[in-house]
């Protein structure tokens, strides 16, 4: 999953960094104005004076708003009604669901709330497809699979079988990397090791 963000003072950047470290999903991050290819993402922004949406965020949304799953934003409660008001304006203009409005760089509780929302979105916007990718940190082939899926922009949940042995047993995972694609509750595709032709199949499923 990708988190796209805009940060003026560094508060949003710090918030996103902490969220990526806390999440059980593999979260990629991208700071505007840089844009990398993506199919879907969550957006985090700051608010300009008078509650305005930052111009670089507005420009990004004009082209990509249909691919944004949620909007979150940083603010200062001393601004009163303008606290993180860019979030409300984006929601009103584009009907993007609001995840969170947080203070400055976020409290631990606010970061956890944001992450819980992201972790609860393992499916794509348009399908019931979801992916579990079992891997370990010391596995070079696992890294190659991660890079391949990221290049395809495919969302997935990372699982370390040593940290979650119950999940490894449930899904009959005996080695890493193992990638399992589900449609609803039904397994439709499994890759053990790194097989480029199966990566292409996975990518085509999400393209379809």
What does this structure look like?
With 208 residues, the chain is α/β, with parallel strands linked by helices. It has helices at 11-22, 55-64, 85-94, 108-119, 140-152, 165-170, 196-207; strands at residues 2-5, 28-31, 41-45, 68-75, 98-103, 129-134, 157-159, 178-183, 186-192. It is elongated. The strands form two sheets. It has a five-stranded parallel β-sheet, with helices on both faces. It has a four-stranded mixed β-sheet with strand order 7-6-8-9, with helices on one face. Helix 1 (11-22) crosses helix 4 (108-119). Helices cover 36% and strands 24% of the residues. The chain starts with a strand and ends with a helix. Residues 121-127 have low confidence and may be disordered.
Give a brief description.
The protein is of the alpha/beta class.
Summarize the topology.
Blueprint: E1 2-5, H1 11-22, E2 28-31, E3 41-45, H2 55-64, E4 68-75, H3 85-94, E5 98-103, H4 108-119, E6 129-134, H5 140-152, E7 157-159, H6 165-170, E8 178-183, E9 186-192, H7 196-207
Parallel strand pairs: 1-2, 1-3, 3-4, 4-5, 6-7
Antiparallel strand pairs: 6-8, 8-9
Helix pairs in contact: 1-4
Order of helices and strands: EHEEHEHEHEHEHEEH
| Count of individual beta strands | 9
Low-confidence stretches: 121-127
Structural class: alpha/beta
- Give Rg in angstroms: 18 Å
Binned strand content: 15-25%
Overall average pLDDT: 87
What would the keywords be for this entry?
208 residues; alpha/beta; four-stranded mixed sheet; 24% strand
